[in-house]
Amino acid sequence: YQPNDNYSGTSCSNCGTNSVANANHTGCNSTCVDKSTCTGNNYHDNCHCKPCGTGKQPNSDKTGCDVIPCNEGEYLSGSTCTACPTGCKKCTSATNCLECENTEDYKMVNGTCKKLTRPKSQADCEPFGAIFIPATNPEYDSDLKNYAYKNYDTPGYCMTKRNVGDVDGPLIDESKIKRLLASGTGYGTCTEGQACCWNGASTVKPSEETTDSNGNKTTTNYCTSSTSGLNNIAHGGYSSFNYASCQRTVCNYAAAEYACAHHKIGKSVEGDWSLPDNEVRKRMSTMIGGYDPCPGNTYIEQGNTSWWKYFCSGPDYKKGVSSFIQTYKGSEGLQLCNAKSTAGAPRCYPRFGNKSCVGAKLIPWSNTSTKYGCAPSILWAQKDTDPIPYDRAAILNQWMGGLNFYDVADTTINGPNENTGMLSYDETSAFSVRCVLKGWVDD
After folding, report:
1. Is 67 in contact with 76 (CB distance < 8 Å)?
2. Which of 91, 206, 391, 419 could cysteine-pair with 97, CB 3.0–4.6 Å?
3. 24: how many CB neighbours lie within 10 A of its CB?
4. Which residues have C-beta within 8 Å of that of residue 316, sequence separation ≥ 6?
5. Cα(333)–Cα(351) distance, rounded to whole angstroms?
6. H runs (alpha helix) in 177-277
7. Is residue 306 a contact partner of residue 277, using CB atoms and an 8 Å limit?
8. Alpha-carbon distance 167 to 159, whole Å?
9. What is the CA radius of gyration of the chain?
10. Which of 428, 402, 438 is nearest to 250 (CA)?
């Protein structure tokens, strides 16, 4: 432009930024626009309207651009919020899920939430060598005079039929877990901090014969090892028990946790199995304590006598004739061994002694000079809860908050000459290990 109309010079000046020469080239006009003229996906850069890029939108006063916010369960595709794939709670794309909706129904596999298949019957658990544990209580059928499951669509759990380390049970990785002989010649010692399992972990002797003052002989069976002994355990209409209890494998907590976390069979993979949690333990306690029947089933509850329903001794509570997961169910049930009652389950007294499962703490309060031992009738689980009561095999846990403690382990852990239900135990103790599967991915 020229400074004025009468300018006689030979050069023109440049207009500054954001301006252009006027029509007479005597000055400059601004090219800036008012912010109100910026519409759509444009923002005002203090002069002009400019587009926000892909995935962005103007802020509230149009002075800049913000990333387009998406709701939970959505991701930004271009400039559009798109729903995450089914089962995905948070994601950055259709192939990169960060969190699944829940862990009960979905499992994260390489950035994708895969639908879990949940067991609903024994047929679902059979391919895994496991027993189905229902998640619902059986309901009483007044027409059939029996308990039965009516909500067949509720998923339950699969529990291994055998202990970790036993034939047909989850394997012991001996590169991570030390396998030891429980007692006798060549017995082993688990040192502090080791993951250990012991074989031959029930009572020292399977039976004992005593004679009273009248010459009457009584045989006490401390565990069940022979086929004939297993066949003689009451099993109703089911197949005979076939899992001997005299030398079941037991493990400390570190070995139990590792073995279950790395167990895999069939369609299940490492990480699918775990130790029982509170939910499973409560379900087992309800089923074994309240619904596995005592023989007879002739007792009719009257007045204040309802407490008899919790015992196999005394009058029998009318619970129906079906066994659901354990007692009297023979080889078709869990076959947990019992350290007190022989009714409907193999017996397995604990093994006490300073040369038994050395390194595994198990101190009866009646004999505190005993330091070690192993109790196959007790099952490891994840967190603190009460043991399964009613003399139907115990299930205990690892108290994660305090490992050196005394607690009541129920009278089901009694052994010969150990008339106390009180034990001192901790994470080094040697108990049975059964692993639980809540779901698996089919594809």
Report:
1. yes
2. 91
3. 10
4. 294, 295, 296, 297, 298, 299, 308
5. 25
6. 227-231, 253-261
7. no
8. 15
9. 35
10. 428
Cβ-contact 395, 337 below 8 angstroms: no
443 residues of the chain, pLDDT tens digit each = 676 666 666 678 888 889 998 888 888 899 999 999 999 999 999 999 999 999 999 999 999 999 999 999 999 999 899 999 999 999 999 999 999 999 889 999 999 999 999 999 889 999 999 999 888 776 655 555 555 666 667 899 999 999 999 999 999 999 999 999 888 788 899 999 999 999 875 555 555 565 666 776 655 566 777 788 888 887 877 889 999 988 899 999 999 999 999 999 999 999 999 998 878 877 887 777 666 655 544 444 444 444 444 444 433 333 444 567 887 788 998 998 877 655 678 888 777 778 889 999 887 666 667 788 888 888 888 865 544 433 344 444 433 322 222 233 333 333 333 334 456 777 898 989 999 999 999 97
pTM for this entry: 0.75
Token pair for residue 315?
A: 């009058």
How many other C-beta atoms lie within 10 A of the C-beta of residue 151? Answer: 12
Q: Which amino acid is at 321?
A: V
- CB burial string 274-293: b at 16+ within 10 A, e below: bbbbeebbebbbbbbbbbbb
CA distance 321 to 334: 18
Contact call for residues 425 and 394 (beta carbons, < 8 A): no
Cα atoms found within 13 Å of the Cα of residue 173, Cβ hemisphere only: 15
Cα–Cα dist 388/396, whole Å = 8
DSSP H or E run through 141: strand 139-141
- Residue 400 has φ and ψ, to the nearest 5°, of -70, -25
3-state class of 390 per DSSP?
coil
Helix or strand (DSSP H, E) at 73: none
Q: Which residue has the tokens 């029930």?
A: 202
Q: How many helices (H) and strands (E) does the chain have?
A: 4, 29
3-state DSSP assignment of residue 230: helix
Roughly how many angstroms between the first and final C-alpha of the chain, as a whole number?
Answer: 75
Per DSSP (E only), the strands in 167-313 are 178-181, 196-199, 207-211, 217-221, 250-251, 273-274
* Whole-angstrom distance, CA of residue 48 vs CA of residue 310: 83
* Cβ density class 247-273: b for 16+ within 10 Å, e for less: bbbbbbbbbbbbbbebbebeebeeebb
Structure tokens, 58: 């103007």
Copy the structure tokens of residue 311: 């015992």
